[in-house]
Amino acid sequence: MLLVSTDEVHGKVIKETLGIVKGEIVQSKNIGRDFMAGMKTLVGGEIAGYTEMIREARQIATKRMVDEAEALGADAVVGIHYGSSAIMQGAAEMIVYGTAVKFK
Prior knowledge:
single chain; alpha+beta; Translation Initiation Factor IF3; four-stranded mixed sheet; 2 helices; 36% helix; elongated
């Protein structure tokens, strides 16, 4: 499955637009990550536990979007966008969406 943030793919002609596909997840951090993040805010720098949490959430959301596109028989998802937001303390939402297409 080809995934691109552009609306077109060089050298490919879109034959059919199948619709919007998306993937989402609300991910929470565990107590250990929360404690270590609190300690890290005292000295500054990257909070690796949160970085890993967001990376994992992005992978899961992308997989869910791809599964939805494959169910439609898509060759690619174009115009992909990611978004995230804090839902509550200790939890973040990750969403990815794009347009499922078939090529000629």
